[in-house]
Amino acid sequence: MADDSRARTRARKDNIFGSYAAIGDSFTEGVGDPGPDGLFVGWADRLAVLLADQLPVSGATADPVHGDFRYANLAVRGRLLDQIVAEQIPRARELAPDLVTFCAGGNDIIRPGTDPDDVAERFERAVADLTGAVGTVMLTTGFDTRRVPVLRHLRGKIATFNEHTRAIADRYGCPVLDLWSFRTVQDRRAWDGDRLHLSAEGHTRVALRAGQVLGVDVPADPDQPWPPLPPRGTLEVRRDDIHWAREYLVPWIGRRLRGASSGDHIEAKRPDLLPLKH
How far is CA 59 from the centre of its chain? Predict the structure, then answer.
């Protein structure tokens, strides 16, 4: 199965994808990047626009801007790997798009007592399932959390899972969106106020990098330097930390203690392959 998948991936030399489905958790849903309609936008939605721009317009019923391109986003915040496998992968297989982006396992890794090797075994089974049904599957590593106060101590577990992800990608011929080495998102302006999700600019830069990984022409450099920041005093930094702990850290810990998820009662924002204007 892995050999067949690799052959299909390498056969796509024109970098043209007519359909795309994104699966995952809050990162892929786009949390931190709110849109005007009340839904989150996020890197996957932004990548969909980049992919659609590569597709020639054909047919009288095609969107005059984005042609026949179709996009679904099945991601839901807070989802664990097994939930994504049960809820989203069957739907992605049913849709059978040209491209699937698969980012999962992060919420498992940050939970106490989880084994990254065990998570990776389940992750690989899901990748094998996906690559047997869709054209190209792009995998995503986790971010380097050295500057994230809550997650800094989990850096070793995340790095271990990342190495598994890269090895799995190699076995199944999957392109990899490597976020660990993506240094531009180490800037605090790439992150939302909760320090756990990307900001709109962070999502934009990830979308640009994802486009590059897929061989798509992108309109801007995702590694372009950030403008200089004015210096911040110790008191200002401490005040920001206190505000963050009160507004975001305490509720986040509370949900973990209650066994609740931010994604409870949330459904996928784009469960079908539809034109971007929908």
Answer: 32
